[in-house]
Every structure is written in C-alpha cells, then in structure tokens.
Amino acid sequence: MTAHPRGLTTVLGSLASFTKITGSSDDDWIDRLNHLWTVVLMTLFAVVTSSGQYAGNPIECWVPAEFTGAYTSYAKSYCWISNTYYIPQEEPIPRRVSDRYNQELTYYQWVPIILMFQALMFKIPNIVWRMMNGQSGVNMEKIIILAESGMMGDPDDRMKNISHLAKYLNRWIQTHRNYRYNFFVKLKEKYSNVVCFCCGKRDGTFLTGFYIFVKFLYCANVIGQFFLLNAFMATDFNMFGFEVIENFIYDRNWRESPRFPRVTLCDFKIRQLANVQTFTVQCVLPINLFNEKIFIFLWFWFFIVATLSFGNLFHWIYYIIFGENKVTYVRKFLKVSGEIHTNFDKKLSRKFAEHYLRSDGIFLLRMVGKNTSAMFITDLMQLLWKTFKEEHCSVKNGVTEVETETPLMNGNCHMGDMEPPSLKSKL
C-alpha cells in the first residue's frame, strides 16, 4: 500500500519534467502555438527538405546521348545551382533569353534556409517578451513554477507556498506604486488602461502593455510570413490555399502547380576550344513534390495561427481596457471564498482591483490561474484581499480608518453594513 503514493509522486515528477520542454509558463497557449509548436514544425520541415537535397538526388536532367558520365554530373550540378526555368509542356520555348529569365525558379535551393529563418521570426516575439518581462521587477515564470509545485504537495505545504506567494506579490505591488498623488497622476491612471503603452511600472500597466505589444508582434509576424513567401517564390503565395480549396470544392484533378513545377528547363554553355556551345536540357525536380505539400500545409497552418492570434489579441485587449472586467474577475473569486458579505465589501473590492492589484496584478493572477486551478487562485486572492485590508485599514473602536492618503483607500473602511460617503461618491 505504501508504494502507491511514492509511485504517484514519481509519475507526477516525470510529468513535470516532461512539461519543461513545452515552453515557458509566462504566456498562454496561443503564444506557445506561435513560438514553440510552429518553430518545431518549421525546423522539422527544414530538416526534411535539407535531407532530400543533400542525402538524395534533388535534380535529374535529360541530357544528349553524347554526354558521358562526367558531362551528365556537370549538367545536373550546374542546373541545380544556377536556377532552372518553367515553361509548360504545351507552350513553345521562348527564343529570347530575357523571356526565359523571367520564368526562372530561384527558391528551391534555399527552402531549408528560408524555413529556418521563418522559425526564427516566430521565436523573436517570445525573446522580446522574456527580455522585457525581466524588467518588470517580478519573475513570472518562477512565480508560476512555485504555484504549480504548490498544487502537488500536501495541504500544509500548499498553504505555505500560497502564503509565500501572496507576501511576494504584495511586496511587488507596494514597491511599484505611485505614492505621490496629484492631478497628473490621476489623469495618467484614468487613461492607463486605454494607452497602456505610454505607462509604466508605477502605473500598474508595464506587464500588460508589453504583453499586448508582443501580441501585436505575433500577429504582424504571421501576416508578414505570407508576404515573405510572396517575395521568396515570386508568386502570390497568399492566394495559394484558396486555389487548393477551389480545386477541392469543384472536384478538379490535382494538376502540377506552376509554383512548384516538377519538370523544368535549364540552359548552360560549354566552351570547347574557340567554340561555345549552348545546351537546353529538361530536368526533373523531385524535391518540389515535397516542397509543394509542405507549403500547402504551411499556408493552412499560417492561416489558422493568424486567425487564433488576432482573436487572442482582441480577447486580451478587451479584458485589459475595460476596467469592469478586472472588478468582475476579482469579485468572482472573493465570493467563492466568502469574503463579500456586505455592499461595502462589494464596493471595497473595486478599490482592491483598480487601485491595489491594478492591470499588472490582475494580469499576473490570470497567468497563474491559467497554469494552476481555480481553487489555487481563490486561496491566493483571499490572502491578498486580507493583506490589503490589514495593511491599509486600522480598527479603532469597531470602525476601520484609513492610514494612507492615496486613493487606494480614500475613505473609511467600515466592516459592517455602513457605506462611507467617500466610497459612495467614488463608486
């Protein structure tokens, strides 16, 4: 019987170790879809295409009968590195060199490199986020790891972790606070949710502002990938997927795409003493069979990632800009923990959300909640609520008075049903 808890602990420990390779915990799954799974996918495709180029025969050419083995190898190598051009079989080969040059395929040798470059572009927003996250004064990843470890321990250790986490968050909140409260601070605080990029740590919008900025980077990157491939392949790649869907809907036979032709032509010259002979040979690019399927998949993958990224961006903007969402989020957990008893408690929770936690505090709690559970975040919110009331209110003769002149608790904090006039006017 004693083996079961130990075995369960081993399984949970192994699972926790495995999840370390799935990326950091200081973002959401849409971010990880961009900077982790898409990067893995692009790297895998780069390996597949490069192995096809270097481990197999990426090109085969139909050469004249008088060509020996060395001539044939030279023709294949030359056509691979100097580009081929595509002319449909039913059309005549243009006589002018400029017309042939306009039909050149310049991308197939560089597919592995461009895929790795695209993978790097998907990773850059996460690198920016990790760099700026470290400037916020709080290590989000370590906080979330501490919260996750607290979920798997016994109840005493769990509450101890939650208590440590609540004290740490309270110190962080108190450190990054405006203690001077004048007209300009009021104005800045009023519009901090809408123009969060103009604010900073002491306004409680540093993390949220940069997180929204990183969300913009993810969206701009995935849209830029279509334009990058347009320039890379010299075609309107952004329409490629729609053409595939159209062929599928109308049950058309799968035809060779002019973007990824299998049969191409190649011109090269051979100098023989004083004579220069020009040869035109027909070549086959087996690698384009894989390239076409890879880029079809990537088109739909990019489309899905772009749709989810934009939806996620608007989702976070909605939650950050509209202050009522913060109050609703806080009250939901305080009601579960039984901390909202009176109308005054309900109004006091607005002060707790808007002036104590503020946008960055709510954002951090949301991230912790996404990686733990509702029960954990309820206990953490309850401790922060109690700390908030203890630090900013002093009980005298049954009435709690304010100890600070900041708007955090601008009025009396009555523990009964009486509602202070200052809060009535404010709320």
Automatic annotation (TrEMBL):
State the similarity comment.
Belongs to the pannexin family.
Q: Specify the protein name.
A: Innexin
The family database entries (InterPro entries) matched by this protein are listed as:
Innexin
Organism for this UniProt entry: Crassostrea virginica (Eastern oyster)
Describe its membrane topology. Multi-pass membrane protein
Q: Per the UniProt record, which residue ranges are transmembrane?
A: 107-124, 210-233, 294-322
Ion transport as UniProt keyword: yes
Would the keyword Transport turn up in this protein's UniProt record?
A: yes
Q: What does this protein do?
A: Structural component of the gap junctions.
Where is this protein chiefly located? membrane
